[in-house]
Input
Amino acid sequence: ASVQAMGLARSSMSDMVRSSGVSRRTFYKVFGSKDDLLKALIDRRVDHVAGFLGGLAASDMATADKVHAVLRAIQAVTSFVTPEMLRDLHAAHPEVWEHLDRRRTAVIRLWKDILVEGQRRGEIRQGVDPDFFVQLITVIAQNMLNPTWIGEHDVPLGKAIGQVVEILLYGALERGDRRGPRARSSREVKP
Output
């Protein structure tokens, strides 16, 4: 059975060796512990997203297209992550969780390049502070996109990330209601 099917807590190193298809000796030579394996898996996924983000930032795609491409990439690399896996990782592997949090924070910082380029091209409002935006996403990731919240709401990680970015970039109001109270006449605003 795979780690995904059994969960991290119930998967032994023997289970992981068996599902890897390589010899036990080779496996232990590369990964001395379950934590080493988990960190390597995290690094592989995060490096993929970071490389993708770096390439997007330098591309001539429209900012909105870049954002949607990033969301698709993040959803693809997190598609196998279940709420149970996050809980197991957080509870049983605190060093790996800290590693994941550091890597996640570093990737979030790459959003700044996309925002700055979007502002330069007139596709992101100049009043949006890229550093503040990046810090906001970081705080949300640390305090909301965590095992407790994900588990309580039983939402896939990729979907939760997509919702956060969607709300931050496009707001919660329908297009026609984005005018704000100052743009409406006093007759329209009722206490």
Q: What stands out?
A: The radius of gyration is 20 Å.
